[in-house]
Amino acid sequence: MYHWIFVPLTLGLSVLCAFFETLYVRTGNNEWKQLTKFWMSLFAVNFAIGVATGIILEFEFGTNWSNYSWMVGDIFGTPLAIEGILAFFLEATFFAVMFFGWDRFSKRMHLFSTWMVALGSNLSALWILIANGWMQNPIGMRFNPETARFEMLDIWAVISSRIAISHFTHATSSGFLLASLFVTAVSSWFLLKGRHQTFARRSITVAATFGLFSAMFVAFTGDEHAYITVKTQPMKLAAMEGLYKGKKPTGLIAFGVVNPDKQTGDAGDPFVTKIEVPGMLSLLANRKLGSFVAGIDDLVWGNPEHDIVGVDRKMKYGRQAVSSLADFKKARKTGDSAAAVAALAIFDQNREFLGYGYLKKPSDAVPPVSLVFYSFRVMAGLGTFFILLFTLFLIQSARDKLTANRWLLRIGVISVFLGYIAQQAGWIVTEVGRQPWAIQGLLPVSVARSNLDSGTVAVTFFIFLALFTVMLIAEVKIMTKQISLGPEGSAL
Amino acid sequence: MIRHALNFYVEGFRNMRLGRALWKIVLLKILFLFIVIKLFFFPDVLKVTYDNDTDRAEHVLRRLTQSAETDQEPLPPVAGKK
Questions:
Q1: Does the pTM of the predicted model rise above 0.80?
Q2: Residue B42 is nearest to which of A49, A60, A329, comparing CB atoms?
Q3: What is the ipTM for the molecules in this complex?
Q4: Does the beta-carbon distance from A70 to B8 stay under 8 Å?
């Protein structure tokens, strides 16, 4: 989550800088060049502070997640390696031209470099999200019980996974949205202070246009992502909605207060209070009016009427997978090849439920419902608000009435912080919503982690927290100083 | 051509103002991450504890089958961490 404070602004501001520079090249107006350079300086601050913050996550793979790292190295490592070789080098190469080459290269070459930096940044996100998408929906591989590793069978299945693609489009467009909020916020602040008014109006016009399209695309991709999640991670969707008992049709909870005492299988009401849109979840989840959407209870205890195998049964299959794996290991040690073959046959029959064999009770498959439920509403609610916000900014910009609507400018300044909140809420939905799984259905977090004592984990956590906090403070200080200097004072 | 590229970078860095501060932060951060944090706080647990891939695979298999086998020896603590 800390890493994600820095990343989305890089993703979006790189593209916005490319748009600003395109306007400079097309119009030949040096004011657009000065505008581009200002936003580029802020992009540079965020990029410099944020770069390599992801490295610490990779350190953690070997330390805190050693079992996971061993098991998925072949699969997970590939997109991360491609990210490093392809995307990062693309960015790094053209970064220098973008910053040093204003007077050394032609306008077109410089513009091309700026677009390459934007492409490189977003390509980095692609590969990372392909890796994350595989964890949410593990496909294109096979578990090798000899080496205890997942082996890649089909790299194109991993790359083209619907979860990975929808993850990527949703995450990157949310980055575009955040960058638009950022530009709008800074420009609104300038207008409130009566500074750089032409610059600020131009920036708002471009950012609000980009932001409006991004916000609508975020909503579209979010809907697509939820539609795919129903099929690949139905428990996550059920938690997002606080849905315990599936029904036909199923309503969407627009607003609700979750009953904190509600447990799976009990008769309690999931909500203290709620506002429900009848039938809407059936339409959104299945794109079919009146359709059944599985609830937490259906998924945990099973629902034969709708062909849902419960976690309780999956645990039995999973335990067979685990014990046959143990038998295979023993047979291999004693050199009993017949027993090894027999054990492997039983393992193959139950391998897709391996992860369930490690759960202690069926309700262990349920993620923290309240956190996922509220985070989803924060994210979706703010996303809807941003569409309205950018629409208002565009209308007032077209009427040349921005400075006359100081209330809107003040909201514009605050909204960048709401953007960050929405970003974090989205990651909570996707990552907390998939608990207890490190790899959906195959490996729970409890088995994926290293055998470390809690003191060791605490030490590394606090070191990481301290380092990132220092970087965040540094970024805020340098960023606010650059903003206060304004476009005239910004020079790299 | 290499000299041309080198001059480009040298002059670029020389003319930087904000960029110099940012580069100091980037270099300090990378040094701190790779030399202090990685070396002292984030060892690759399996690489440090075991010498070869066969033993590492055995460790992971033992973890995967721990719940099914009650007669297994407990997993060793991570090397260097007590």
A1: yes
A2: A60
A3: 0.78
A4: no
